[in-house]
From TrEMBL, chain A:
Lineage of origin: Bacteria, Bacillati, Actinomycetota, Actinomycetes, Kitasatosporales
Family to which this protein belongs: Belongs to the bacterial solute-binding protein 5 family.
Stretches that traverse the bilayer: 591-612
Native source species: Streptomyces filamentosus
MF annotations from Gene Ontology: peptide transmembrane transporter activity
GO cellular component, one term: ATP-binding cassette (ABC) transporter complex
Record-annotated Solute-binding protein family domain positions: 102-473
Signal peptide annotation: 1-43
Protein name: ABC transporter substrate-binding protein
Automatic annotation (TrEMBL), chain B:
Assigned protein family: Belongs to the binding-protein-dependent transport system permease family.
Cited InterPro entries: BPD_transp_1_N, MetI-like, MetI-like_sf
Name of the molecule in the record: ABC transporter permease
Sorted UniProt keywords: Cell membrane, Membrane, Transmembrane, Transmembrane helix, Transport
Top-level taxon: Bacteria
From TrEMBL, chain C:
Keyword terms: Membrane, Transmembrane, Transmembrane helix, Transport
Name the record gives this protein: ABC transporter permease
Family: Belongs to the binding-protein-dependent transport system permease family.
Biological process according to GO: transmembrane transport
Amino acid sequence: MVMVTKVPARPRSGRPRRAARLLLAAGLTTASLTALPAATATAAPAAAAEDGKSGGTTLTVAVSQSIDSLSPFLAQKLTSTSIHRLAYEYLTNYDPKDARTVPAFATEWSSSADKLTWTYRIREDSTWSDGKPATAEDAAWTFNKMMTDPNAATANGSFTANFAEVTAPDARTLVIRLKKPQATMTALDVPIVPKHVWEKVGDFSKFNNDRQFPIVGNGPFVITDFKVDQYIKLKPNKTFWRGAPKFDELVFKYYKDGDAAVAALQKGEVSFVPNLTPAQAAALKTQKDIKVNDAPGRRFYALATNPGARAKDGRTFGNGHPALLDPAVRKALFLAVDRATLVDKVFQGHAVEGEGYLPPRFGSYFWKPEGAQRRGYDPAAAAKTLDDAGYRKNGDGKRLGKDGRPLNFRILCHATDPNDKAVGKYLQEWWGELGIGLTVECLDSVSDPWVKGDYDLAFDGWSVNPDPDYVLSIHTCGTLPATPKDTGATDNFICDEEFDSLYARQAVEYDTAKRADLVKRMQSRLYDTGYMNVMAYPNALEAYRTDRIASITTMPEAAGNLWGQDGYWSWWSAVPAASAAGSGDGSGSSAAGVAIGVGAAVVVVAGGLLLLRTRRRATADDRE
Amino acid sequence: MTTASTPADVARAEKAPATDGAPRTGVGTGYLRHAAGKLGGALVSLFAVLVTSFFLFRILPGDPVKAMTHGIPTSAEQLATLRRQFGLDLPLWQQFADYCAKALGGDLGTSFQFRAPVGELIAAKLPATLLLTGVAVVLYSALGLWLGTRSAWRHGGRGDRLNTGLALTLWSVPSFWLGLLLIIVFSVGVGPVPGLFPTGGMESGTGETGFAYVLDVAHHLVLPVVTLVAVGYAQTLLVMRSSLLDEMGGDYLTTARAKGLKDDEVRRRHAVPNALLPTVTMVFINLGHVAAGSILVETVFSWPGLGGLFYQALSVPDLPLVQGLFVVFAGAMILMNLIADLLYPLLDPRVGR
Amino acid sequence: MTSLAWERRRGSAARFWRTYRTHRAGLYGLAGLALIALLALTAPWTVGADVQSVTNAPGTALESPSTEFPLGTDQFGRSLLGLLIWGARISLLVGLLAAVLSVAIGTLVGVLAGHYGGWPSTVVMRITDWFLVMPTLVLAIVLATVLSRSMWTVVLAIGITSWPTTARLVRAQTIAVESRPYIERATALGGGHRHVMARHVLPNVMPLVLAQTTLGISTAILTEATLAFLGLGDPTVVSWGGMLQDAREAGAVSSGHWWYLAPPGIAIALVALAFTLCGRAVESVLNPRLGVGR
């Protein structure tokens, strides 16, 4: 289990000493808090001294999501996979301008006439950070490991499920044979690991790649240190083939509280904060040295209705409301959703109104309904649709279902997502006008009722990759669970023949323009089935300090985002500002800290003396 | 502590300061019997905690595997592999047998989301929590003792009323709210107040070593500790105050005064040591809350401790981790209660030994 | 006979009030409670249920305090003052119900255990002890996670986790009451278990129960705020804890919207303080040896 490498590991302080220091810190705080200002006075200049000593430029990024694993074979969370992008090369990368596939570990690639054999040319100028050359052999080993060891397929197995054989005829050639054609062959987002390090790993399900630092990789950065929920540190890979990153250090620092992260940005403790709320963005916009980046997002945010959960064997399950099987009801519900208001009020303008399925950011695949096909906001038409379909209002203004009972729907909401709760409030009122009741059921983990089909409506949303294959696949019949007891990859139990046949065609279409056309037709079909209503494409709201970062590449290059890119562009390209070296504002604030500390100490001492005097007098009184 | 107990507990603590009515029969063998009984009780409790933590968390809704992979491309085969890796494909009784067998050997299982041994994860975060809450308990106990003594000595006076009033008011404040306000004022800085303290975390992570590291951690410790102390010291204050008031009614104090001892001396030599008893036992019980007590403050200050880990584990739900943390939280309380029970007869001078 | 009992009760109530009146802090608490209760009860006429509506919100997002909105607006443009007053209803209701539930369970367990004694009592008290060492907040969080998000879940989570202290106190009191000679007399005269418990024990533990409830409410209100802050409350109803959670989710802390964050916290603290002051006053009236209010 312990990985043995020849890399000289940076000496790390042993546990006992660390514990002793914590103890000392405890003692110190205990002592200092009794004279709180004094502690401030001593601690602040010490911190300043630290800043000065470290010298080089550090780019600190605030993150909140925990690392699930540093092993590329296990990691699934966004923070983890983003860091793997920085530490390992993938076969291909996406152009920051328009997200088209560009060379990375592979320099060129081609497919055979039968579309079943792909040959990749592996780059010659990529070396592992321990000095060994990175070759096709490493790539072949990585894929073969995932194909043969189910534990190694945990994170990215979906990419290799269709692989028949992967070989490396020579150090520069990688050959992948497929069982059937696969359109995602130039979008294999799988980190390639060094064989000479990883072949020593025993159990892939337990190896987290977090014991030996630095971690051997060939990406633009090398992971040098990691403390769970405290920080991940990376140093630039000086031999990176595209050129070394400009910052001397990249640190991902943990802030579990969003407000604490923003406060840290304002203070200069961190240089970048993602996932801002509209209020935070508005407040940061007015501040000096901070730039707010408001970029089109890669997510869609939708309402999903339960189309009657079912399995591949034809059996239905779950307790979805029968009235939602009626297209008229679904249409009426969607007609009563004012998407423009949601963008305006809930997202405070930091979103794009929802249309088709894929966000407009992915221009070549973007589709939106026009003319009669489009469902706009029209509460009158919604009421009329319901009236016409035979859902009448009763005396209390409640609309009655076919069984004569008032229509009351439930909506599954993510308790951790403020937008779900906010939109839920609006839906309650809009649908209340129609005479339809809505219960907002918020859960920490919605997956249980979801998988069981125990919901009427749900808030749904996916982050879309440059290759849309996955987000389209989750609406095909093939992803339904095999039996009601199984779970499938299906998003919302949608199963539509027309959609499926289009999906099958695009999956084997290697011509990009033709494939894009098929993808658009799929979206049109999905829209017409009326099971999903995409309400918005939320923007990525993030901010960075311009006195630390002089320039940084967004993706797409024009008005794009920085956090969670499909590539390493942002952190690789970031250029330190002239003032970033040393401690910019650190010394200033600590000087102020000293002043305040000294002032407060004087006040406390004076107060103490006063107290002592009054006490003495009081004691004297007592004695009488 | 702050989160687990609230104003009502203040009053309760005043009412029944001596843990759960430790029998005061302590004479030699009597004490031993008392100790053995308490020890046995603690062991039974611990075992009950172990068993219930398994079943309690099985009622948590949600398929952990599904929850972990929600929103991530995952094939049915991958899901099956995950289930097998986590032992979730086994029937419940078999999972329980495995759990018991392992738990008896000190192995709390493997976390679903971190894929690391639960014991290791907890051990990694325990020092941070112990540091934060340990410092806070020591400080607010000291502060409470001091202010409580002063208050009782001049009870009824303006100082007493001010003291008690302030303590009760702070006690009524939600700790997370106070923490957020402190961040706004002392971390971000408001008006003329500059941001003096870090907004969160336990260390700057800029590679300090030695004494500089100690200072750095101390610097990060200030605001969370102030929050916990402000919200928590009322309990000690009120217990100390009321037990000292009880003592002051005692005849022996009058005797002591009559002997010509000075007021201060009477207080130091006679009243305070006796009144300390219930307070000391309460401090131990508070220490029992240490592990679980600071969930909120840890969340607000991004403190890398057990509280944050628990909340995170619960939302998956990461069953082995939740179970393990629950056992640790409850175990700490059982242990500290036991220590308080064992200490009480030893400390109580009224119990002739 | 009954009128005599009434007379006696009224007399003791008057005596209680006379002593209570001497506790200044208790009076402040009572006055504060009366004011807040009045605000909460009259809310339907002063602010109206419409204050919760997001589609008819009168203001724009996160306005600073003005004459129209004395405490500013939330992210939907709703008046924060209105929400604060409306939220008092849920916060007080949850606090009240949870405390009553907790004290009811505690009293039931305590009286039964104290009255019957023997091994059933031992078993019950062992369970109580076991509950006492459970980390309360942790248990409440687990319960609130298990059950669906609603006000009742919060009530249940608080009620179920906080009864053991009451049970212990009530049991001790029950044993004390039953050792009095007149209970023996009642039993000798043929009074059954039910009669003894209902007619003799219960009235005697009632004052204690009252004090426990008063103190329990402040705990419950704080716990409600805590659970709501952790996102475990019902997001569709307005409560003080929920407002704090909303404020935090909107990023009000770091964007400097103190008027969103400060009032709900102050309201929680004031109500909790008021109940605590009342509870302490009641306790010291019942048991002057405590010296709380001296």
